[in-house]
Design a protein that fits this description.
Blueprint: E1 8-9, E2 15-16, H1 22-27, H2 40-53, H3 58-69, H4 78-91
Length: 92
């Protein structure tokens, strides 16, 4: 889900939509325990987008680790889970 952007007026009177912060996108995603099975891909994609902007974001790395650990996720991968969780600990 992409957050709504609010129009902002500059001091010169021009309006624009400020860019969406990747951390705003992260904060609007659901915790893993609330994700229906079909939403795992969307959560993974959202967190991957955050990592492109903030590659050492400890909370996002932790969430991706737990996501890859979930046996009901279509992309379950324990090795990836350990890698993300380890990076989370190292950067946090």
């Amino acid at each position: 889900m992409v957050p709504d952007r609010t129009r902002v007026r500059t001091t010169e009177g021009r309006e624009y939509s400020p860019p969406v912060s990747p951390l705003t996108l992260f904060s609007r995603t659901l915790p893993i325990k609330l994700l229906p099975a079909l939403q795992y891909e969307r959560a993974k994609d959202a967190w991957d987008r955050v990592l492109t902007e903030a590659p050492n974001h400890a909370k996002v790395l932790q969430q991706l680790g737990w996501l890859y650990h979930q046996s009901s996720a279509p992309f379950v991968n324990q090795d990836m889970a350990v890698q993300y969780l380890t990076r989370s600990l190292e950067t946090g």
